[in-house]
Design goal:
Shape: elongated
Largest sheet: none
Number of helices: 2
Distance between the termini: 34 Å
Number of strands: 0
């Protein structure tokens, strides 16, 4: 098990794996369709998307939590 102090890093890593994988798959498909070499093209887009998604999620999630906390009714 991973210690609690690494929760945000692990959350960011796992979330970015799923989101960048899913989004790059959909965008690649919408732009190209199922062409020859689709999987390799998608994987190339995936790792680039992951490099952007991981630090973005790491730094944005705490701010989003604050904003959502202000928008949620107390009680």
């Amino acid at each position: 098990m991973v210690p609690k102090k690494y929760e945000m890093i692990l959350f960011s890593f796992v979330m970015s794996l799923f989101m960048s994988g899913f989004m790059s798959l959909i965008v690649t498909f919408l732009n190209l369709g199922f062409v020859d070499g689709f999987v390799m093209i998608w994987l190339h887009a995936y790792w680039k998307a992951f490099l952007v998604a991981f630090p973005t999620i790491f730094f944005v999630v705490p701010q989003v939590r604050k904003i959502v906390g202000k928008l949620i009714a107390k009680g």
